[in-house]
Amino acid sequence: MNFKILLLIPFLFFMKSSSDEAVFWGKNGHRVIGKIAEKHLTRKTKKCVDKILKGQSLAFVSTFADEIKSDRKYSEYYPMHYVNMDLDQTYEQAEKNPEGDLVTGIHKCIAILKDKNSTEEAQNFYLKMLIHFIGDLHQPMHIGQKEDKGGNSIQVQWFGNGTNLHSVWDSKMIDDWEMSYVELAENADYLSKKQIEAIEKGTIIEWVNEVHIITKEVYNSVKVGENLKYNYSYDHFGTVRTQLQRGGIRLARLLNEIYD
């Protein structure tokens, strides 16, 4: 084998491992949340958002915060995609990352978007980031344990193919459903006005603590190396759909508070 190829193999393996560990809600998941949010925006908010995003939809820009991770100048935002917490802790009890986390990232976005002195460029950037971060908040493995990188280090199989627990929840179940983000959003569960209002209630931290309860269940749902198949999706895809819908409704609530 060519000596240069031998040198390249470890590098490629490192790149694959690094990218696997940097996975979050897949593109479809984030787009579902953006699409659902659009249904719950007020007329005034829709007009403001449309102007700031220059006509692009919430679904279209929902993956922006992941796309910029390849650019090192945005590295300060990387810790804002997740929160590390022990399973028996609330956010208030957990040790905080001095570089920031999902909660501080969301609050930063909201503060800038509410600031009437922020530039058009800042409004555009932080609106895209907020859309993404609210999506991340509702992915249970974004509020996981530090030692296993939110389930990224918990190796399992998905229909016989090697993967990790984070990826199963991030994209495997969604992709296996073989529906577009539009179809998934349009087939979200029917909710009454009272049910929607109940989902809208709460603070960012309360939402984190709520999702963390699901995180515990996810950790207890598998054994290392287990081959997950139809039964796992049958048992848990409903939770995925619920989290996507909650994320969309809550994103809309925040945007309405900012712009309406």
TrEMBL record:
Keyword Zinc found: no
Coiled coil region boundaries: none
Keywords: Disulfide bond, Endonuclease, Glycoprotein, Hydrolase, Metal-binding, Nuclease
Top-rank taxon, per record: Bacteria
Gene Ontology process terms (BP): DNA catabolic process
Alphabetized Pfam families for the sequence: S1-P1_nuclease
Official protein name in the record: S1/P1 Nuclease
Gene source species: Polaribacter filamentus
